[in-house]
Automatic annotation (TrEMBL):
SUPFAM superfamilies: Class I glutamine amidotransferase-like. InterPro entries: ChyE-like, Class_I_gatase-like, GATASE. The keyword Transferase applies. It comes from Cryobacterium cheniae. It holds the Pfam family GATase. Transmembrane segments: none annotated. GO terms for cellular component: cytosol. Keywords: Glutamine amidotransferase, Transferase. Residues 49-193 form the Glutamine amidotransferase domain. GO terms for molecular function: transferase activity. PANTHER family: GLUTAMINE AMIDOTRANSFERASE YLR126C-RELATED. It comes from the Bacteria. This is Glutamine amidotransferase.
Length: 243
């Protein structure tokens, strides 16, 4: 069976490794079935789409909507490389799942509107499937309404042309969409568990995803949440496209 490919951009080793572990667990994958490339560490190697079952792009400290002038050379390189890859993915309708940073990249690439209107602080939120989501081949595996973890400074405020809205949220109207039949993006994190987000907020405490002085309240909200459903999206992605 062909492996999946995770394209990661977190420079903090603990965060990068925890994200990888989260995708492995959520998809019931072993390391030989989920290859990882850390794009922040080195230029993207040649990627043969035919060697993979699908591509996953995880979250990132990068914001795709930031002005080019304030982006680091690494971010500019990463986004140039990912834009070229997205052209290939979209041309073939190749299986793709972009989470958080991934939804921003796809929105921007397809000329949707990406801005800070619907940012959400790190923590749990409620997600609801649209009618299209309830009948989608992946999202039908999820409950109609469920809790998920988010934490983002930018979000899709206008869908790209032709995109299908699959899920919405209490504080962010676009939580997931599909382009074509096989290209998906989510604002919420399908890989994050309660333990995973606690690790992430500790690492990114000073990055502006929440008020660091209110960390005790953020932790309390996480501890009070029951977030298990999003992993079913990863499982559905693997079951549908694994080959």
């Amino acid at each position: 069976m062909k492996p999946f490919l995770l394209l990661a951009t977190r420079s903090e080793d603990e965060a990068a490794d925890d994200e990888y572990a989260g995708f492995l667990a959520a998809g019931d994958l072993t390391p030989d079935r989920l290859h990882r490339v850390r794009l922040e560490a080195a230029p993207m190697p040649p990627i043969d789409l035919d060697a993979y079952s699908g591509i996953i792009v995880g979250g990132s400290p990068f914001n795709a909507s930031d002005p080019v002038a304030v982006k680091s050379p690494v971010q500019r390189r990463v986004e140039t490389e990912l834009a070229a890859l997205l052209d290939r993915v979209l041309a073939r309708d190749f299986p793709f799942l972009g989470a958080c940073y991934g939804v921003g990249l796809l929105t921007s690439h397809l000329r949707g509107r990406l801005d800070g209107t619907w940012s959400e602080e790190a923590g749990p939120t409620w997600i609801s499937l649209t009618d299209e989501g309830a009948s989608d081949q992946l999202f039908a595996a999820l409950a109609p309404t469920f809790e998920a973890f988010v934490g983002h400074k930018e979000a899709c405020s206008q869908l790209p042309p032709g995109a299908v809205l699959l899920a919405t949220g209490q504080n962010c109207p676009v939580q997931a969409f599909r382009v074509g039949r096989n290209v998906y993006a989510t604002q919420f994190h399908p890989e994050l568990t309660n333990a995973g987000i606690l690790t992430r907020i500790r690492i990114y405490r000073e990055y502006g995803y929440f008020d660091p002085n209110a960390m005790a309240d953020v932790i309390a909200a996480i501890d009070a949440s029951v977030v298990t459903e999003p992993a079913n999206l990863m499982k559905a992605f693997v079951l549908r496209f694994g080959r």
